[in-house]
Amino acid sequence: MLSYLQDNRDVDYVIVYARSRAFRNFVDAAITKRHLDKLGVRLLSAREDFGEGTYAEAMEAVTDIMNQVQNQLSGEDIRIKMRNKAVNGGTIGRAKLGYLNVRKDIDGRQVNTVELDVKRAPLILKAWDLYATGDYTLERLEAVMGDMGLTSRASARAPEKPIAQSKLHQMLKDPYYCGYVTYKGDIFPGRHDPIIGQELFEQVQEVMDLRSRRGQRDRVHHHFAKGMLFCRRCHDRGQTSRMIFTEAIGRGGTYQYYVCRQRKEGTCDLPYLPVYRIEEALEIHYKSLNLPTNFLADIHDRIDQALADEQGSVRDIDAKVTRQLKELEVKEERLIDLAADGMLPQHKIRMKLHEIHTQKRKAQDSLANISAELTVGGAVLNKALGLIEDPSGLYYSATDPVRRLMNQSFFEKIYVDEIGDVTTDLAEPFAGLYAAETAWAATRADLGDETTPAPIKRRPRIAEASDGIQMVRLFSVDGSTKTSMVELRGFEPLTSSMRTKRATNCAIAPRRLCRRSH
Asked: 253-260 and 243-250: which strand pairing?
């Protein structure tokens, strides 16, 4: 409007229905009035007529201030009602794709609610199922769902049309489809019927996170090692440069190569590496990952012993959580008494009760899962040990998708060079396991155990990680496997006797690994 008035100087008045419709606050009103005064234009309100002069301007200013206060109060009231609706499981705003806004007669009252869209809900479920396989990119999923007939709802402004990639990406990240509503970052159980299950939702999130974490774009992978290969020459110079997969068409057909990204910028001299040479180097590298059978048996025994020792810690945590539940029950009873006495507003009491119920559910879940955490952590290590009993044989006979999963499980990064050699940064828990095997072999050699094989010389790169260091301590000495709830020094300086005592006690890694797996 101000731009129009600037270009059209023949306007004398601007008429609005009400000043509250024209300005959000009194600051905007004052600034707009200053601009209009410079242009010689007067603002008139159809609802408020204060006349002219100093008192009229004062009344206009007071009205603008009161309009701002009323606007803020209305906004706060709306926010409270919207949050209460979310807390009670109601859908905020228009129904999402796959649902419809409907009015139902409930106990003689017309109630606004949502129900499944029988036309689109099955297609929404199909889209989640396809993407969870990991074989579909958003681009391919858009084309497939368009062919299957998944479209947006028609509106007064736009007809039905196929769902775009951006809409699919937004849908695949939304917990609404598994039965939850979100408001201001908080998640609450919804009253609507979920289209998908929690397990399918987590599978899709894993696919998305994996592609994002590995630096891969959401597109079809043409080679199982793509996204994990890095240039060794650039790494030796202190740089990180990813290897790019490329294809060249020649007289004999299509040839596949990996090339360093820095080579295209002229800062790396690593030549193009044929894909088959990298595949052969990876097969050879997996042979260096085999571990001695007596080491695997030893670590199985130590894991079982560590889990048994942790039961004392479990009992302490159990008692702590039980006390927390009793405190929450006392708080809940106090709030109920306050509600009966009418000493607090009802909406505040409901919000407080909801917070207490949420904390109680978390405490109850924690109480039920304490022992399960240890079991899961031990299962993670045992599965990892199962993978490294014969990793080279498993890798050699595996399909390309399985090889990709193995690479992502064993390694953080894979470094390649022209000579065909491969070095790696191991991922947890394998970094800790291989570091522990080295310490285990050295310890047995110092004790004169001739049955222990020498450590493998061609050892892959081991990334520094806290869990790896803890696992090394597990086999660095042949002492006690008991865990300590606090450090030996307590509140006093560490004496020489304490150093000797601490050196003969091992810090067990499964506790930390259990927390990570949980």
From this structure: antiparallel
354 is written with which tokens?
A: 């909801």
What does the alpha-carbon distance between residue 360 and residue 329 come to, in Å, rounded to a whole number? 8
Backbone φ and ψ for 54, nearest 5 degrees, come out as -65, -45
The DSSP code for 242 is: B
Interatomic CA distance for residues 435 and 203, integer angstroms: 32
Residue-by-residue pLDDT tens, the chain, 518 positions: 889 998 888 999 999 998 888 887 888 888 888 888 888 998 888 888 888 888 888 888 888 888 888 888 888 888 888 888 888 888 888 889 999 988 888 777 888 888 999 999 999 999 999 888 877 888 888 888 888 889 988 888 888 888 888 899 999 999 999 989 888 878 888 888 999 998 899 888 888 877 665 445 554 446 788 878 899 989 988 888 888 888 777 777 778 888 888 887 788 888 888 888 888 888 888 888 877 777 777 777 776 676 666 656 666 666 777 777 777 777 777 766 666 666 666 666 666 766 776 776 666 666 555 555 555 666 666 666 666 677 888 888 888 888 888 888 888 889 998 866 788 888 887 788 778 777 777 776 665 655 555 444 434 443 443 444 344 444 444 443 443 333 333 334 444 444 433 333 333 333 333 333 33
- In sequence order, the 6+-apart residues with CB closer than 8 A to the CB of 344 are 335, 338
Q: Which CATH superfamily is domain 99-213 in?
A: Putative Large Serine Recombinase; Chain B, Domain 2 (3.90.1750.20)
Sign of the CA dihedral with 469 first, then 471, 475, and 481 last: positive
Distance linking the first and last C-alpha atoms of the chain:
58
| Prediction pTM value | 0.41
Angle between helical axes of 54-87 and 346-387 (0-180°, round to 10): 50
The H-assigned helical ranges of 310-426 are 311-341, 346-387, 391-397, 400-410
Q: Where are the domains of the chain?
A: 2-87, 99-213
Q: How far apart are CA 274 and CA 420, in angstroms?
A: 10
Give the burial class of 49: count Cβ atoms within 10 A of its Cβ; 0-12 exposed, 13-18 middle, 19 or more buried. exposed
